Amino acid sequence: MKYSKCLLAAALACSCVAASKAAIAPVKFEFTQSGFYSYEFDQNGDLVKGALTNASITGSFTGMDMDGDGQIYARGQVAADFGFGPFGNELIAAEVTFNGFGTTNGPQTIVYDSTGIDAFGGPSDMTSLFSTFMGIAYNLDGGALGDTPDEGLSLGLFAPSTNFTVGSLFATYWDDPDYLKGEVTGVCDGIISCASVFEAVPAPTQSGAAAITPFFLTSETLQMKQIAVPTPALYGLFASIFGGLFMLRQTRKAYEE
User: Fold this and answer.
1) Nearest in space to 211 (alpha carbons), one of 170, 162, 174
2) Which of these, 92, 109, 142, 193, is most buried using a 10 Å CB contact count?
3) Cβ-contact 103, 170 below 8 angstroms
């Protein structure tokens, strides 16, 4: 009876550890977005809607809910230092591919990898000055990224050539009369534009400042699906659990003999 209780206690303890590990396991999502219209400034500096394009966004991101708040959240240190919001570092990897936008010749992919090394020899995560992602926030509720005001994704202005922002949370990065203006990016509900793609090409505005153009806006929701992520560490944990239980059982047998 004594050893049975030991086995049960060990199994329960290992289950608790396994559950806690599983709770913060990486999650991965793939996404696509289309329905982008071209926009340009007229002679008065106002935005003018152009034609529907065949351009589209495809990509994926992998993150880990380290604080257990039900959201994958990351915000670059530089953006946080400038007062845009609290720093976060729950993004592991991401990439966005631009197809058919502006002056870009062919598909262009921007990649983020928190496990890499930046130009200063430090981690290429959200603490790096060279991080291409200014921020990402996604509630793990099964909905689309950007369907609530506390969600969004934004590539930094210093990302190679083409930039992308979706949802409301990071729209303030571009809330300037001579840039995208706050009202053109917001919650993906079809009422206001959900996402924008733009290139850092100077263009005149009414105030004489340089805007970022050409750019494209869409009110279509980001289409997402979750992808299974292999977790070798978790597999090893379960192997250790079963191995430990096996050793306890063998010990019991030796004792009984």
Assistant:
1) 174
2) 193
3) no
Tokens of 117: 């090394």
Q: Letter for the amino acid at 30?
A: E
pLDDT at 133: 85
pTM above 0.85, yes or no: no
Residues in the chain: 257
**C-alpha gyration radius of the chain:** 24
Query: How many CB atoms are located within 10 Å of the residue 120 CB?
Result: 10
Q: How far apart are CA 213 and CA 218, in angstroms?
A: 15
d(CA 60, CA 107): 15
Take residue 29 and report the two structure tokens written for it.
Answer: 């999502």
Contact indicator for 18, 234 with CB cutoff of 8 Å:
yes
Gap between the Cα atoms of 195 and 125, Å rounded:
24
Looking at the DSSP bridge assignments, the partners of residue 97 are 58, 109
Nearest one of 159, 163, 208 to 185, comparing CA atoms: 163
Plot region of 83 (φ>0 → left; ψ -120 to 50 → alpha; else → beta): left
pLDDT tens-place string over residues 58-117? 999 999 999 999 999 999 998 899 888 999 999 999 999 999 886 556 788 888 999 999
Cβ proximity of 199 and 163 under 8 Å: yes
The full DSSP string for 210-251 is EEEEEEEEE-SPPEEEEE----HHHHHHHHHHHHHHHHHHHH
- List 139's β-bridge partners, or say none: 71
